[in-house]
């Protein structure tokens, strides 16, 4: 807690803005009690900063850490509370903020920290995670534990391990569809003519996602479909579903009839890469799923799919940024 103590008290570097771990812990407990009483939500964002060979406790490293803290403080709302957690991570408590609101806050903080680190040319890595009450815990301690666990999981995700945050959207899709993956969260497969899975398997997966959304229509989420043709079955499913909180987008050279598809919004993108590479990106409060399929000769597809929510959220962010789409999640 030496870092937190120094920043909070030595010289009053961040008066009334950056707090020590004791204050943050007590404030978090009060926020949990308030959210319980008024049946509302709050979220925690944890920022873990690592720098090989740099000590943030004194000298130039301490000044560097102060600059990072200032960047975070400048990126959050006036009502948000920022300080240290017991494991020397920067903690941001976001009142009246749900899961997707905390992801939006992470985007803003990540963008600001990225600009700062690039400008500073420091060998620093940042992992940012989140958790929301009451979905992720019955009290502040449980919510904080969930955010810590998610930070460890994010560090092990392909998004971080393969440094995808510094690559372009189509570069990432090329890496994912061009290499074999095998595992519980990420795996590759072939589909199409002569394969164990036929080309309609892709439509079946997309249909299952829409059915899952329909089962819990009140749950927020976001879904992107990019395909040459939207199957009639999918159109029928969307048309028969009631009102849904999830936002669904059809990406690509959609025809004039796409505007009439119920529960979906067409996004016209004239990009030749969308004629041979199709993708599905789905993210809600509980899970993420991504499917990427590249069409080959002979009506066959090389595919990759993932249940890694950090990878899916990262891909959605890249897609929105690089095509200047509205930045939204849920």
Kindly describe this structure:
There is one protein chain. The protein has 330 residues and is an alpha+beta fold. Helices cover 40% and strands 24% of the residues. The protein has ten helices and twelve strands. It has helices at residues 2-9, 21-37, 59-75, 99-120, 140-155, 158-161, 169-178, 200-215, 232-240, 309-322; strands at residues 18-19, 42-51, 81-84, 90-95, 124-133, 186-192, 221-226, 247-252, 265-268, 277-284, 288-295, 300-306. The strands form two sheets. A seven-stranded mixed sheet has the order 6-12-11-10-7-8-9, sandwiched between helices. The chain is globular and about 65 Å long.
Q: What are the key terms here?
A:
single chain, 330 residues, alpha+beta, seven-stranded mixed sheet, five-stranded mixed sheet, 10 helices, 12 strands, 24% strand, globular, disordered N terminus
Shape: globular
Question: What kind of oligomer do you see?
Answer: single chain
Mean pLDDT: 87
> What is the count of DSSP helices, taking H or I runs of 4+ residues?
10
Structural class: alpha+beta
Largest sheet: 7 strands, mixed
Q: Compute the number of strand runs.
A: 12
Helical fraction: 40-55%
Give the N-terminus to C-terminus distance in angstroms. 36 Å
Strand order of the main beta sheet, please? 6-12-11-10-7-8-9
């Amino acid at each position: 807690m030496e870092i937190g103590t120094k920043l909070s008290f030595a010289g009053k570097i961040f008066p009334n803005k950056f707090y020590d771990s004791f204050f943050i812990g007590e404030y978090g407990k009060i926020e949990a009690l308030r959210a319980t009483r008024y049946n509302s939500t709050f979220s925690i964002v944890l920022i873990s900063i690592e720098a090989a060979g740099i000590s943030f406790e004194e000298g130039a490293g301490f000044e560097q850490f102060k600059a990072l803290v200032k960047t975070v403080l400048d990126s959050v709302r006036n009502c948000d509370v920022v300080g240290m957690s017991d494991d020397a991570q920067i903690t941001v408590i976001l009142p009246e903020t749900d899961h997707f609101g905390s992801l939006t806050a992470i985007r803003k903080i990540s963008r600001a920290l990225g600009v700062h680190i690039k400008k500073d040319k420091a060998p620093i890595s940042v992992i940012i995670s989140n958790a929301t009450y009451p979905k992720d815990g019955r009290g502040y301690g449980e919510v904080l534990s969930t955010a810590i666990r998610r930070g460890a999981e994010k560090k092990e995700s392909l998004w971080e391990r393969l440094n995808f945050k510094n690559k372009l959207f189509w570069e990432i899709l090329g890496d994912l569809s061009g290499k074999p993956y095998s595992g519980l969260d990420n795996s590759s497969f072939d589909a199409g003519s002569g394969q164990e899975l036929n080309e309609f398997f892709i439509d079946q997966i997309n249909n299952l996602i829409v059915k899952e959304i329909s089962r819990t229509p009140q749950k927020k989420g976001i879904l992107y479909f990019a395909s040459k043709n939207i199957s009639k079955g999918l159109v029928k499913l969307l048309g028969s579903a009631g009102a849904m909180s999830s936002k669904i987008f059809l990406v690509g050279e959609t025809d004039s009839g796409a505007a009439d598809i119920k529960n979906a919004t067409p996004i016209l993108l004239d990009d030749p890469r969308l004629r041979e590479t199709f993708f599905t990106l789905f993210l809600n409060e509980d899970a993420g799923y991504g499917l990427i399929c590249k069409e080959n000769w002979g009506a066959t597809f090389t595919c990759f799919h993932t249940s890694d929510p950090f990878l899916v959220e990262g891909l959605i962010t890249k897609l929105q940024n690089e095509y200047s789409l509205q930045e939204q999640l849920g």
